[in-house]
Amino acid sequence: MSGSAGVHVPVLLAEAMGLLAPRPDGVYLDGTFGGGGYAAALLEAAPCTVWAMDRDPEAIARGASLAARYPGRLHLLHGRFGDMLDLLGGHGVAQLDGVVLDLGISSFQLDEPTRGFSFRADGPLDMRMSQSGPTAADLVNTLSERELADLLFELGEERASRRIARAIVRARTEQPILTTGRLAAIIRGAVAPDRSGIDPATRSFQALRIRVNDELGEIERALEQAGQLLAPAGRLIVVSFHSLEDRIVKRFMAEAGGRTPAPSRHDPRGLSARPAPRFRLLTARALRPGAREIQQNPRARSARLRGLECKAAEGAP
Predict the structure, then answer these.
(1) Predicted structure pTM score
(2) Whole-number CA gyration radius for the chain
(3) Which of 198, 213, 228 is the last residue in one of the domains?
(4) Which of 103, 111, 122, 307 has the fewest CB atoms within 10 Å, i.e. is most exposed?
(5) Residues 63 and 197 in one domain
(6) 8 Å CB contact between 33 and 39
């Protein structure tokens, strides 16, 4: 979905900006720059400074025109958001007034067949966000049948993982699986469509993409580092698109906000007072897109937004 001047309009933008509440002279991080939607909204909302990072070099190249529109206010960094402490620290940034993370794959990556993320158009079986390291084809053609089945089940929540893995191993003995079209056809031949209307290849492609890019590990590292970087009253906003992502975000924010159950009275840890949490939840439950947004952008239907705020230090005014 695109807005004015060709800037991508991300999911739940109004809700994210409402919670971030950008202020003049604030310093913010758009950790998943993509098409620049959140960064542009931050820059437009207040005379603030925005650091934006993306592991995809194409995203950083796209951002040059936006940076030119806001000279001295938008700074682009090529790298993983799981390395934000080092990336920002290298530029002298030690505190942030807000962080926004839009997890998963970007529309630009999904819509470009040569990137190999989608089964809707044939292309090389790649799936690398950073365009470096092992590809999805490497995994599909080298993992054992059991390893493939475990991967599809754990990261794709695919119930037919064993059947699909068996079909993949059988097919690759004839010739290597090198394209998205061939892999999708193999999966569709092994699993019949269900009533949901979701393409049978969806979960398997998700699992491969997550493994190729270590997405869940990146999320865990990014959340921990974002918590360290937030200044008092600084806010972290995260938009996730499937249950594995949202589970990690929900757990992290609940623990940071002191919403975890107290230890059992039989647990010695229950004898010690628990430290007051440094953060408070901004969202009692995940925010969801409205019907109008889903109609305009069907990919928004699975989005979940959660927010967290760093409390002021005790005794601070």
Answers:
(1) 0.88
(2) 21
(3) 213
(4) 111
(5) no
(6) yes
